[in-house]
Amino acid sequence: MSKLFQALLSGMFFTFILDFFIILGVKLNYIDFYGVHVYYNILFADHQNFFLFLFFSIVLGYLVVYASTKTALIVIGSLFVLSFATLIPPIGKAVGEMMLMKKNITLKTDKFFYHGDLYYDGRKNVTFYDYELKKVIILDKNKIRGQY
């Protein structure tokens, strides 16, 4: 039983590090590129997929504790290279767009319709590029009545 617990904790440790660098690359190359005002900690906490985190924790933990050292090094090393790749600007920007951006949508408030790209859907505000205004606007989530 203690080996299972050790495997899970080891997997969580490695997965946490991988997530850190993926989110860091998104922060540096997508969030900062579009001028979205969000702290790294909030970005990291709000965009964790629990099921993916658990899956990779189990797989990596199994590899670290039960698989051969060579196999574990190859798999974990490959995943680290992939997570570090988000620090390369075009890759980090593309990953950020896949994770966070919604293109060509319409948001409705009490008075206006906004048509454009949703850059970031935060806890309280939405960062949105409006095609007609040709600029980035920040909308209060409580005032948005619908998304189309």
Describe the structure in your own words.
- With 148 residues, this protein is an alpha+beta fold.
- Helix content is 57%, strand content 20%.
- It is built from five helices and five strands; from the N terminus they run αααααβββββ.
- The protein has a five-stranded antiparallel β-sheet with strand order 4-3-2-1-5.
- A hairpin with a 3-residue loop joins strand 2 (113-121) and strand 3 (125-130).
- Helix 1 (2-34) packs across helix 5 (89-100).
- The model has no long low-confidence stretch (mean pLDDT 92).
Which key phrases capture this entry?
elongated, 148 residues, 57% helix, five-stranded antiparallel beta sheet, 5 helices, single chain
Task: Please outline what is shown here.
This protein has 148 residues and is α+β, with helices and mostly antiparallel strands. The protein has helices at 2-34, 40-46, 50-65, 69-84, 89-100, and strands spanning 102-108, 113-121, 125-130, 135-140, 146-147. It is 57% helix and 20% strand.
Low-confidence stretches: none
Query: Radius of gyration, Cα only, in angstroms?
Result: 19 Å
Structural class: alpha+beta
The helix count comes to 5
User: Taking strands numbered 1, 2, ... along the chain, how are they ordered across the largest sheet?
Assistant: 4-3-2-1-5
Shape: elongated
The total count of strands amounts to 5
SSE order, as H and E? HHHHHEEEEE
- Mean pLDDT over the residues: 92
Ends distance: 50 Å
The helicity comes to 55-70%
- Main sheet, how many strands, which sense, barrel? 5 strands, antiparallel
Strand content: 15-25%
